[in-house]
Amino acid sequence: MAKQIRFNAFEMNCVVHQSPGLWRHPRDRSAEYSRLDHWTDLARLLERGLFDGLFLADVLGIYDVYGGSQDAALRGAVQVPLIDPLMLVPAMAAVTSHLGFGVTCNLAYEPPYLFARRMSTLDHLTRGRVGWNIVTGYLDSAARALGYVGQMAHDDRYDLADEYMDVVYALWEGSWAEGAVRRDRAGAVFTDPARVRRIEHAGRQYRISATHLCEPSPQRSPVLYQAGASERGRTFAGRHAECVFVNGSSPAIVGRLVADLRARAAPRPIRVLVGATVVVGRTEREARDLLADYAGHADAEAALAHASASLGIDFARYGMDEPIAAGPTNAIQSNVTTMARVAGPAWTKRKLLEQSVLGSRQPPIVGDPVQVADALQAWMAEADVDGFNLSRTVMPECLEAFIGLVVPLLQERGVFKTAYAPGTYRDKLFGQGPLLPASHPAAAFRNR
Which residues contact 306 (CB under 8 A, 6 or more apart)? Predict the structure, then answer.
């Protein structure tokens, strides 16, 4: 049987996510981000297209590296204004039955005890369809907003994250044993106290003595996503992640990264999804015309404001063709490395903008349904990825076109499902039950 392609919609609960300026397009509806029906309609659309999940990005600060100011981000609506992604999930879950929800939550600024309850709550309310994209942040503006002078050093954030994971694993997996909840009306026992234990943890960063407030949810631990591609990030992913999101620079570069990630995670299986932007038309000419139409609304300054924050480089200091001096930064280190590989060591703002035609980090896949399907399958074969996180362009027509034109062709080729598998999000992704496998480090925390 041919390897099946996985699809997530890569979204953010804001006006501009990865394609600055396209909110100005007359057919775009991204500015309706604060309406609940905007999100419930999206969830229904994605489930109709048999998408595995909706991957929701998030940040806790404003992009203020470009020119040392937040003005460009505010003018271009670059991930600001921004509402809380977790608040949207129960409503979307209520109008769907199978769609998974991967939510980005920054562990650096929330106590693990409170966070564990929020994720257990979502897992209950979605009946086991929630995932967590584990991030440690990369914005100094977020650190200042939370009362710190600045964020921790890059590798120190991952050290913090390793301990954080031990605490939430203990709460999710170890506080309540199987069978603890009896719901025994006749015996007047809802929970058997002998099967619930207090979690005791005294570490470098966290101290906790507490019983998890939630009874076990369908998955206990959410599906674990991670997107770090630096050396330290890959070490973290190899230990914890079930699904890894990587940026789509080239199949050769991504293929080496995928092989490394799979080796680090072994013997556990992982799913690797690569970022992609698709512009599809009924004909190649129609797709090319769409791309030109979309590109005419792109906002270069907003794109640079986004790139400045994620790369940790103030591009306002450079001319269009002046070589960028990109040394180590405290932002997303893998983004800097990838850009240097793609554009060369002496890359410039012009090269960056040429690479990011619609503002996203990868050149778009453009063509008719056959050309798009061929390109996606080539990525699968050459880079050994499991699927794609599809960034939006003009909403909702970009997803409607993909679901209407590309999905049926992939189904005809036998590489995309025609129905959802039963079970939880983890069941659907791995087919091995709702819980993390015994080979995952979380299993060591289980209350047996």
Answer: 20, 63, 73, 78, 79, 359
